[in-house]
Amino acid sequence: MGWREPVGTAGLAHRGISPERIVRPTKRFLWLPVAVAIAGLLAYAFLLGDRGYLQERALRREMAALDEEIEALRLETAQVQEVVSGLQAGGIEIERIGRERLGLVKPGEITYRLVPMDSEGWGLDKGSSRE
Fold first, then answer.
1. Mean predicted lDDT score pLDDT of the chain
2. How far apart are CA 112 and CA 115, in angstroms?
3. CA-based radius of gyration for the chain
């Protein structure tokens, strides 16, 4: 297939334009689908590829959440280290835990237990009943 004479070139000779210099529209716009395809591939790679923008944004969110979790764990570790150092330092911390959590008392101490009153003015334990 060769070049054919463009339509409407009869009056171009007097202006100094030769018919060979006129490019057919089909040849001129042949690059357009190629450029669109290349732009589409680049957009896909930029947005949706393995290292694309959306993947990077998701990874940044995950990294921020992990940073918050690390900070919370550091705080918890510091609190546990304080308790351990208190337990290693002596009996004050051990005595406090024994009294609060286990209800322990020293020999000779008298413990008083306050029981909330019911609507009739009687103090009842949760497990006991009035007869």
1. 77
2. 10
3. 43
